[in-house]
Design brief:
By secondary structure, this protein is of the alpha+beta class. The chain folds into two domains: about 230 residues, Rossmann fold (3-Layer(aba) Sandwich), CATH 3.40.50; about 120 residues, Beta Barrel (OB fold (Dihydrolipoamide Acetyltransferase, E2P)), CATH 2.40.50. It is built from eight helices and 22 strands. Strands 11, 12, 13, 14, 15, 16, 17, 18, 19 and 20 form a ten-stranded antiparallel beta sheet that branches. It has a six-stranded mixed beta sheet with strand order 6-7-8-3-9-10, with helices on both faces. It starts with a strand and ends with a strand.
């Protein structure tokens, strides 16, 4: 298996920078998810790693060797596409063995390798079937198996579950994660689905408009978003963000806005400054003091079965509250909400970057 290094990789289409100066080290055996909205450059970046698209700047390295100018067939990589790309006239067994026949492996060795991979992916009973006779999940397993037979240095997966329904996606997510643990293989996985990223990744690389927004474990990216973009993108509902002012009051810092007064749990004095205040919906709870915290008007309540989400207005802004059902909130209720200081996040309103406080506010880097 092999690690992958992206050194200042860029790709321009005319005047548009689809990928802009990306530096990223993917460790040997890591499951890295490239996450972001449609058009952010994640598939373009994966295609440059695969050799399907040449970068207009930067270098790509695999296991320490520069492969920037190496053609796709010369790279020790296997790619799984969104469309499965199976040969409809070939059986599952012949689809699995196709990469090995292209490399002129002996027939006996091909049969042994196909049998080994079919057993790993629970495809043994399907080897004589054609792709049209398979379900979507089975087809995806065949596509994975065709990549697996090659024993590549790394696997590249471009939204492989997007054609499956919700139940099949959940099951196939678990299968891919189990496969990664069993093989210890390097996997780079592209998705716009945050559930896939949070449940499968050892690390997430979040992209926005061709640039890396944040890289970290799922817990780091969710619990300590580096920017307001990361705060909004991860989480359902997304993190609540409110314009506020930080003031020194009674020896500590307080965030204030229309209908908002929250103790930040930070001691010290500093000049008043504007911030964006963030708090996740699941961290909000009723406040004991009706005049403190966040004073909100409930506008709607969604019943999600195991939990509820209350949509509220705070002045001219909208926030959500998420918790176990029932929340005991109804449209028209006025409620005071609060959150522990450790769950409050502060961002710079100009750059969107996370702010941290020591003796003075400092914009944190990604």
């Amino acid at each position: 298996m092999s690690g992958i290094e992206l050194q200042g990789v860029s790709r321009r289409f005319g005047s548009v920078a689809a990928v802009d100066d990306v530096w990223l080290d993917i460790a040997d055996g890591e499951f890295l998810v490239l996450l972001g909205p449609s058009g952010c450059g994640k598939s373009t970046l994966l295609r440059m790693v695969a050799g399907l698209l040449p970068p207009t700047g930067g270098r790509v390295r695999l296991a320490g060797a520069d492969i920037t100018d190496v053609p796709p067939q010369g790279r020790d990589l296997a790619m799984v596409f969104q469309s499965y790309a199976l040969y409809p006239h070939l059986s599952v067994a012949r689809n699995l063995g196709f990469p090995l026949r292209a490399r002129r492996w002996p027939r006996a060795r091909i049969r042994a390798k196909v049998a080994e991979v079919a057993a790993q992916l629970d495809l043994v009973e399907l080897l004589d079937r054609k792709p049209r006779e398979l379900s979507g999940g089975q087809r995806q397993r065949v596509a994975l198996g065709r990549a697996l037979v090659r024993d590549p240095g790394a696997f590249l997966m471009d939204e492989p579950l997007s054609n499956l329904d919700a139940k099949l996606r959940a099951g196939t997510r678990a299968e891919i994660s189990a496969l990664h643990r069993r093989l210890g293989a390097t996997m780079v996985y592209v998705t716009h689905d945050q559930v896939e990223a949070m449940t499968m990744a050892t690390r997430i690389a979040l992209l926005n408009a061709g640039k890396l927004e944040q890289v970290g474990t799922p817990a780091e990216v969710y619990d300590q978003p580096a920017t307001t973009f990361a705060a909004r993108f991860l989480g359902s509902p997304a993190m609540n963000l409110l314009d506020a002012t930080v003031r020194a009051e009674g020896g500590g810092l307080t965030a204030r806005a229309a209908e908002v007064s929250l103790d930040l749990g930070i001691e010290g004095e500093l000049p008043e400054r504007e911030v964006v205040l963030g708090v996740r919906p699941e961290h909000l709870r009723p406040a004991a003091d009706a005049e403190a915290g966040i004073r909100a008007l409930v506008t709607a309540v969604e019943n999600l079965g195991h939990e509820e989400v209350a949509h509220c207005e705070v002045g001219a802004s909208a926030i959500c509250v998420r918790g176990p059902r029932p929340l005991d909130l109804r449209p028209g209720d006025r409620v005071a909400l609060t959150a522990d200081a450790r769950h409050l996040h502060l961002f710079d309103p100009g750059s969107g970057r996370r702010l941290t406080w020591q003796s003075a506010p400092v914009a944190a880097g990604v």
